[in-house]
């Protein structure tokens, strides 16, 4: 598969707090890269030839690109909102396509079956109508008016509630979830999935959150989100085909898959083919 269409994107390669003690070596799309924090506080990223790559430090992570991005890293305004707790969840390595990881994050139908008694439960399995669009002005995929009953929507939730969701895909390997904030009605909790492509069927997933929660410990917040994602990992690592099919005839979508369909169409439009399967095999 070609990496064309993907090289000029921004990707997470490290959690910034990890750089305080040592240089950090990792792999991006098959290319070894080294992340270092200098004595002057400046972060640098280099590829295996010593070429200095572009760098951004935002949302608790170091971002870089193997190409020359023609756009800035997407904005998450809530990251600057006073009173929010910014949670670096850590990293989970998953043997799946980086695009599969994002697509799974967009799927609400699996809540009752994979995240039983936390994000969903039987018999509350129905996916109600919701709205999906590709917003041309910002070139992002959005799903809105999503509602689902959840026994424990967040660590701060005291009991089951009907949770409202919005999904946003601002980049091929990143997704942002806005959901009902139990302690602050009218606000949104923000949960993100930043995916680092290691290979076409291997990735590191860096969840990050911006929450209103004045009672839970940071450890409890991290463990809650890690529990959710580790439940997803076994599903992701057993999906067939391993790469994300972009041909609409390769899988049969249902109403619950509207966001996935839009995401795949958006990827195909931009020729994001790294980690994708273009034709049936």
UniProtKB/TrEMBL annotation:
<protein>
    <submittedName>
        <fullName>Aromatic ring-hydroxylating dioxygenase subunit alpha</fullName>
    </submittedName>
</protein>
<feature type="domain" description="Vanillate O-demethylase oxygenase-like C-terminal catalytic">
    <location>
        <begin position="94"/>
        <end position="269"/>
    </location>
</feature>
<dbReference type="GO" id="GO:0051213">
    <property type="term" value="F:dioxygenase activity"/>
</dbReference>
<dbReference type="InterPro" id="IPR044043">
    <property type="entry name" value="VanA_C_cat"/>
</dbReference>
<dbReference type="Pfam" id="PF19112">
    <property type="entry name" value="VanA_C"/>
</dbReference>
<keyword id="KW-0560">Oxidoreductase</keyword>
<keyword id="KW-0223">Dioxygenase</keyword>
<dbReference type="InterPro" id="IPR050584">
    <property type="entry name" value="Cholesterol_7-desaturase"/>
</dbReference>
């Amino acid at each position: 598969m070609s990496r064309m269409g993907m090289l000029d994107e921004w990707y997470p390669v490290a959690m910034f707090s990890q750089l305080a003690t040592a240089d950090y070596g990792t792999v991006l799309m098959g290319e070894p890269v080294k992340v270092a924090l200098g004595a002057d506080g400046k972060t640098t990223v280099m590829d295996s030839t010593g070429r200095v790559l572009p760098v951004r430090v935002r949302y608790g992570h170091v971002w870089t690109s193997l190409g020359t991005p023609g756009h800035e890293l997407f904005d998450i305004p809530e990251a600057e909102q006073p009173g929010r707790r910014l949670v670096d969840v850590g990293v989970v390595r998953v043997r799946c396509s980086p695009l599969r990881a994002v697509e799974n994050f967009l799927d609400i139908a699996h809540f009752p079956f994979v995240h039983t008694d936390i994000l969903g439960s039987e018999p509350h399995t129905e996916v109600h109508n919701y709205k999906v669009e590709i917003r041309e002005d910002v070139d992002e995929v959005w799903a809105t008016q999503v509602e689902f009953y959840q026994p424990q929507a967040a660590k701060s939730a005291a009991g089951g509630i009907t949770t409202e969701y919005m999904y946003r895909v601002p980049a091929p390997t990143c997704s942002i979830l806005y959901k009902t904030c139990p302690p602050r009605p009218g606000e949104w909790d923000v949960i993100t999935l930043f995916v680092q492509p290691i290979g076409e069927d291997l990735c590191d997933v860096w969840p990050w959150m911006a929450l209103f929660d004045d009672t839970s410990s940071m450890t409890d917040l991290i463990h809650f989100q890690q529990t959710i994602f580790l439940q997803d990992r076994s599903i992701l690592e057993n999906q067939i085909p391993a790469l994300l099919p972009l041909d609409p005839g390769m899988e049969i979508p249902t109403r619950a898959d509207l966001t996935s369909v839009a995401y795949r169409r958006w990827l195909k439009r931009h020729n994001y083919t790294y980690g994708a399967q273009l034709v049936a095999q």
